[in-house]
Write a structure and sequence with these properties.
33% of the residues lie in helices and 24% in strands. The protein is α+β, with helices and mostly antiparallel strands. It has one domain. The protein has a three-stranded antiparallel β-sheet.
Length: 70
């Protein structure tokens, strides 16, 4: 796991943690690039679920895992 995160990655982690659960599509485009690094380091969790009971497709959500700050 990486221990040295950039300031931008820390900002993204804080933003997602503050929001709680977010649709990946609702994230600003600049933030999407850091999601794989934070996920591989164990700070974020991505999962798929329907947005409403009648939806046939599932959407991807991202959530911060309560872990020591990067």
């Amino acid at each position: 796991m990486r221990e040295n995160f950039t300031d931008f990655e820390k900002q993204i982690y804080d933003y997602i943690k503050e929001q709680g659960e977010l649709l990946v599509h609702n994230l600003p485009k600049k933030m999407m690039g850091a999601i794989p690094d934070l996920k591989n380091a164990g700070y974020l969790k991505t999962y798929r679920k329907p947005t409403n009971p009648w939806a046939s497709k599932k959407q991807t959500f991202v959530k911060a895992i309560n872990k020591k700050h990067p």
